[in-house]
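B., you asked whether I could sanity-check this one before it goes into the benchmark set. Here's the sequence:
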Amino acid sequence: MSPTPARRPRLRRTTRLSARTSAGPGASSARPAETVPVSEERLEEETVPAPEERPGGLDWARRIELGTVVVTAVVAVVGLWYSGIQTRQANEQAQQANAQARDDRALAKEGQITDRYTAAVGHLGEEKMDMRLGGIYALQRIMQDSHRDQPTIANVLATYLRTHAAKPPAKGQVVLADVHAALNVLAERDPTHDDGFRPDLRDAQLPGVELKPNDPADPTSGAALSDAVLSNADLSEAFLRGANLINADLRDANLAGADLRFADLSNANLRFADLTGADLINADLGFVRLRGADLINADLSGANLTSAFLIGADLINADLSGADLSIADLSGANLTGANLAGADLSIAKKLTKRQVDSARVDGRTLLPDSLS
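And here's what the prediction gave me:
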């Protein structure tokens, strides 16, 4: 049941009655009428009821309270939304500023590298040896600082080598220091940043050069010359221990007396190369092409020659003890005096009895069933 509506204060009127003097029927006159207050009422203010006593009072109070809460919540949400917008804008501005700063630094660095590169290349043309050496080592530092410039710098060094090592050193002299330095820088680079670069050192005259392994504890960490073009190059007596010469083109190259221990020459092309007296102990020569190569007195003990092409190769007095010649093609190869002790020729191709008889074998030598 709804509460009784609040009543307004009312103004009560004062009623005055005329009092007449009653007389008998024969009275000749009457007293003047007097206004006599019969009742006198005051303006009364009735008690204002409490909200819960007013009609609909409680509903309105609750509505007002709820409205206050809603307005407060809306204001808070709007504040958070606006704060979020400001934060996002601040973050975006900060990111843009950082990106711009990075771009500026990259441009500055690129400009510095360009200046360094120009100066280094300029030094390569100097007459003084120390200036040329400075230019070579400056290029090495740039190559280390900027990997994307490595192919360009490596090509510059290869060109420098072809130009400055086009003629063999005078009799009794060694390769000049700048040539040796350029070759070392090229051989020590990280090939993973080559981006298709292939060292072209064809015809380079580099006898006696020394390219030591990068890690003394790892004999296979030698010069990075995979895919190198070294055809007709002179690398006689060179120290190439542990060199990576995978897929290298060494046709007609002079490697006589070279130290190629632990070198990886797999799939290299050594057709008609001179490997007389070369040290190839534990070298990897898998799938190598040695057609017509001269391997007289070469030391191939422990070498991997699986699937090697030794067609017509000259292996007179070569040491092949413990070597793996599985599936190697030996057609026409000269094995006179070759040491085959402990060598695996069990599935060698085109090996003849005459070849075996001309070589030195022992009880550990594994021969094809047809020749056992």
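One thing to flag: Strands lie at 15-19, 34-39. Otherwise nothing jumped out at me.
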